[in-house]
Amino acid sequence: MTLVDHIPTLRGSLNRRLEPGIWPRGAHLRTDNELEIARVETTQLAARFATPAYVLDEDDIRARCRAYRAALPDVEIAYAGKSLMCRGVLRIIAEEGLSLDVCSAGELAVARSIGFPAERILLHGNVKTAEDLKAALGYGVGRVVIDSLDEIHQLGALTTTAQPVLIRVTPGVDGSTHHAITTGVDGQKFGFSLADGAAERAVARVLAEPGLRLVGLHCHIGSQITRVAAFEEAARRMVGLLALIRDLHGVVLRQLDVGGGHGIPYLPGETEFDLTGFANRLRCAVNYESGRRRFPVPALTIEPGRSIVGPAGVTLYRVAVVKRGATTFVAVDGGMSDNPRPALYGARYTVRMVGRPSSAPLVPVTVVGRHCEAGDVLAEVDLPADIAAGDLLAVAATGAYHYSLSSNYNAVGRPPLVAVRDGVARLLVRRETEDDLLARDQG
Ligand SMILES: Cc1ncc(COP(=O)(O)O)c(C=O)c1O
Ligand SMILES: N[C@@H](CCCC[NH3+])C(=O)O
């Protein structure tokens, strides 16, 4: 802490500029401190849909899809549906020409309900239940990504024609991210280890299974990673394995899926993912390694989720209570049920009081939720000293892994998901009601 941090009056009052790179592209802060997203006032959104509410800048999502396609024109971009899955978002993804990664029969059902093209769908997961596998085969998904020896037999026993599959490999690359979302190293539950030969043994088993057709390899080293070199290293190792498989089995696998995991900034000053650098270095690494091993350059797939939808989302909360003391607690009408990420990963956020002007100095506060846990903390940030019940808070970069991680803790209904575009708000998913909560309860 510096001296300035201890003296509220020196901390300044509300910054009139939105932190660059953190808020949706269509976000604009007016001089009266009204936050507009895609020319829709967030005070109007809060009035119409109530709070908490997840707001999505549709054009931001579309722009991110297009940026990926422009940077990687010959690479298949498969949106990781787990990051934010609903029909409205999948329609955007389908319209933008992306493929889709699903990891359960439930996610597949959403995709299926809008007729997402089956050949552009990949099924993932370390556990795929019989229902998941049957649903995938029933819809005719393009590829299933095999994650265990058990699954080889389980899937093989269900197929009637040879199902195209990839094998998920753990390449032994650490993306330097939170341990709960680190998946490229040995000692975690996903994939077959490259280092101990498990991946090579899985290849032999799949090749011997008549119900499966091995078309390529997959890896996913983790999430919220900005170090491009980690993806480059993983790709290099995977091409090495493709060449080894050719040498050992005489089989040339044409597809290489290097997963997703591209990080986004949540706080000012955090590194943005270098998409152009990633595209160049991925292409160079794969071309170089393929050339060196005289292996035909494989067709590439990537699976970004967070970096497609994360920055497009903003959560709106209403301040319910302010408790002033040694710590000032600003308690809002949502919390860990709509955002468990601070509790799960120590995630931090950029938060603003919006909707009315304030010239009060900024003071440190702890933004907490309404749930029955002391750990229900959303953020530790600076907000205007005159913050009061009824004020509106906007939390940035909540498009990915918020709606999809939300729960009904304390029988609180999940917030609505609202898309905004060209001055118009469109409800994608309505708020969960008490009737919804009671609907499954058999009494
Ligand atoms: C197999 C797979 N692909 C893609 C992703 C998408 O990750 P992210 O949202 O970090 O891009 C995940 C989640 O980490 C995943 O498990
Ligand atoms: N849920 C995690 C990301 C998980 C990535 C999925 N494999 C997060 O919110 O950061």
Automatic annotation (TrEMBL):
The keyword Lyase applies. Homodimer. Specifically catalyzes the decarboxylation of meso-diaminopimelate (meso-DAP) to L-lysine. Its EC number is 4.1.1.20. This is Diaminopimelate decarboxylase. The modification N6-(pyridoxal phosphate)lysine is found at K82. Pathway: Amino-acid biosynthesis; L-lysine biosynthesis via DAP pathway; L-lysine from DL-2,6-diaminopimelate: step 1/1. Its cofactor is pyridoxal 5'-phosphate. Belongs to the Orn/Lys/Arg decarboxylase class-II family. LysA subfamily. Pyridoxal 5'-phosphate binds at G261, E303, P304, G305, R306, Y401. The active site is at C372 (proton donor). Keywords: Amino-acid biosynthesis, Decarboxylase, Lyase, Lysine biosynthesis, Pyridoxal phosphate. One of its GO terms (biological process) is lysine biosynthetic process via diaminopimelate. The keyword Lyase applies. The gene is lysA. One of its GO terms (molecular function) is diaminopimelate decarboxylase activity. It comes from the Bacteria. Residues 59-309 form the Orn/DAP/Arg decarboxylase 2 N-terminal domain. It catalyses: meso-2,6-diaminopimelate + H(+) = L-lysine + CO2. Substrate binds at R306, R341, Y345, E373, Y401.
